[in-house]
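Design review, sub-item: ligand-bound model
Attendees: FS, YL, KQ
YL presented the inputs for the 6-deoxy-beta-L-fructofuranose complex:
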Amino acid sequence: STGGAVAAVDLGATSGRVMLGYVGRDELRLEPVARFPNHPVRTIDGLHWNILELYRNVLAGLGQALHDEPDLSSIGIDSWAVDYALVAGDRMLGTPFHYRDERTSRGIDAVHAVTGFEELYGVNGLQFLPINTLYQLAAEREGGWLDRADSMLLIPDLLAFWLTGARRAEHTNASTTGLLDARTGRWDTALAERLGIPPRILPPLAEPGTIVGTLLPAVVAELGAPSALPVTAIGSHDTASAVVAVPATEPEFAYISSGTWSLVGVELEQPVITDASRAANFTNESGVDGRIRFLQNVSGLWLLSESVRHWEKESGETISLPALLAAAAEAPAPAAVFDAGDPEFIPPGDMPARISAWFTSRGLDAPRSRAELTRVILESLAEAYSHAIRLAAELSGHPVRVVHVVGGGSQNALLCQLTADRTGLPVLAGPVEATAVGNVLIQARAQGLVPADSSLESLRALVARVFPPTRYSPTPR
Ligand code: ADP
Ligand code: LRH
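KQ shared the predicted structure:
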């Protein structure tokens, strides 16, 4: 093989992994090195990520990766979006909050007291979501935390800082903060100032494919790494990396990046920021190579995983996901679906009760068993996908003839089939680890393991050859 190896760190809200990626002209191979759960922790001041535990697992995984493959040429890091640490000098100010923490509701009032949603959307082009970084930062203002900080580092940028000492804001993830101007791609420092967010805490932007820095001496010693090993900026927003690895072979596709959340949309060259896209609550996030991810965040398998978590806590049993999905496939199709994107389903809690209440409060029959509840979650997600794909095509004028599903949820055959049925379009499922694949590919291109001028289309063709997707056709009616 003429290729080389890179390491991808991919942290999802459900689990994290470190993978080795081997890439050459016609070669693409991923080897899992470490996988670890991501359990948030509630303390007296709210819900947090266990960031040190995650970092410990990342270091252990990278050490293992270097043991397995001493010729590693680069490291790339991605995670879920919007969350951050405040940093003063080398010190992290407190433990990062989880985007599902309740304090965001205070931030929404604080932001909208200064600027209306319409004006905000005109700048950042983002769907209204209570989790967006600017609402979180606005909630920190009262505590005086922002005055103490000299940097706000998004989660992948924080880990890159710990590994290299360099403070950057990778562009794709920065676009989820709400503080980036969607047209210029720069921080809107005037907006930040008006919201009481000191512009000095917004780090210089880094583009995917550029070098963030090389490992600090202490990290080199701990990992047994070569001293010049670089951290390369990739699409550090996990969804941006997942979209890079969609195995599309023709341009008229929609994608669903399916994990804890479902991100449903199309890829565009230019943002769509119109009254209609605002009314439809569509987001324009930055993609790799200057592309726009025009999508809607319609909640996701969180609805199911949080239900399972509740049932397991209540009963003390361990629930098998494959068995539950098999039972859901046998359950009758529900007469009605619920709005999977309703913000009332964002906070953690008794999800089965919340979903049942959605039906009973409208005079509808609630699901009567775990299988029925699972079925109605999947039907509701599929309906939301279908709606979002139709809107994405209408609002952007981008035709859609096939739907690609990538991520952990692409293994859910029932959900893929329901998506094909409700959209009336063929669904192509996989790869499961699309995010890590996209992470690996952008590092590989930066390192010259594939030609430096490889387009996303040629990278996607390689993914399609190596990870042929599973096809689901709409059931004829
Ligand atoms: P994240 O990146 O948000 O952590 P993933 O892409 O890892 O999420 O996807 C996690 C989801 O994948 C789980 O919530 C689960 O619903 C789904 N999943 C994982 N394994 C399977 C499986 N064997 N069959 C069906 N679905 C699965
Ligand atoms: C998916 C994801 C999504 C965001 C959410 C916070 O993991 O990054 O794109 O909306 O997490």
